[in-house]
Amino acid sequence: MLLCVSEGEARRIMEEVHEGSCGSHIGERSLAGKILRAGFFWLNLHDDTA
């Protein structure tokens, strides 16, 4: 089951997942995949990570 989050929460989640433990840059597909695997979803997820 995925948790549908608000725009503000989505922005925070993207930043946290994107920075990661080492602060390395990951590609948009990898970022979206990590967010989905963490159990989060929002309608513009793939657009927002592009």
From TrEMBL:
<protein>
    <recommendedName>
        <fullName>Integrase zinc-binding domain-containing protein</fullName>
    </recommendedName>
</protein>
